[in-house]
Design a protein that fits this description.
six-stranded mixed sheet, five-stranded mixed sheet, globular, alpha+beta, 229 residues, 18 strands
Length: 229
């Protein structure tokens, strides 16, 4: 097939323990999935209906150690540490009891946010795209296959910045666990192999500045280290 312009390279993430790559199709994110974070943002805790938004696939910066450029148009870049779920199978209206069968593996990542732009968007009832979907806004570790690590449950999720603990929680504190997230997402979109899900952040979100170093951990499964420059 002849294309009018060169075909862009497919965004991809290393698969831990192998020389293969996980191709990224879309990035889905769930907001306010930890009650303490919803409260710190001044939002109601909704246990009935999850809130979703998206980032472009090429927002990833992938690997176990990454360098992330401080984005333009903001003076208030915030970190949000999250467990990342990678799907190997798709579908619509996926039953909750079969949802984990669609998971390829897990990693840890940051949902970086231009908090000042998000505040303006909220005040004007505008979309969050500029606040959430910018270049390099989705750093992510290597993906660890569920066939090796299983399906994480009561694991510690944490983020240190410059050796100081910023965020910490247990996965059991999620309002909507992974199987429920997949089930609810598949009501709204036909999910596909290669989709990523950022599963929500706990309290403790705060600013990052140039020169900051961070270490995000998902239990003993995944680690993401990096620097803001």
């Amino acid at each position: 097939m002849n294309y009018a312009i060169p075909v862009p390279a497919a965004p991809a993430i290393p698969v831990a323990g192998s020389d293969t790559l996980f191709p990224v199709h879309r990035i889905f994110c769930i907001g306010r999935n930890y009650a303490d974070h919803a409260k710190e943002m001044g939002a109601a805790v909704d246990r009935q209906q999850p809130m979703f938004f998206m980032k472009p696939a090429d927002a990833i910066v992938a690997g176990d150690e990454v360098e992330v450029r401080y984005p333009s148009a903001t003076q208030d870049l915030h970190h949000e540490v999250e467990m990342v779920v990678a799907l190997s199978k798709g579908g619509a209206d996926i039953p909750r009891e079969r949802a984990l069968d669609h998971v390829f593996g897990y990693g840890v990542g940051l949902d970086l946010t231009r908090r000042d732009l998000q505040a303006v968007a909220k005040a004007k009832s505008h979309p969050w795209d500029a606040a959430k979907g910018f270049d390099q806004s989705a750093p992510v570790s290597a993906i660890h296959p569920a066939s090796v690590v299983g399906h994480p449950k009561d694991l510690r999720l944490s983020l240190h910045v410059n050796d100081a603990l910023r965020q910490e929680t247990r996965l059991d504190d999620m309002i909507f666990p992974v199987d429920a997230i997949i089930h609810e997402l598949s009501k709204l979109w036909t999910l596909a192999p290669g989709d990523l899900i950022y599963s929500g952040t706990p309290a403790g979100v705060a600013a990052l500045v140039r020169g900051d170093r961070f270490i995000a951990r998902l239990g003993d499964i995944a680690v993401l280290q990096g620097r803001i420059f």
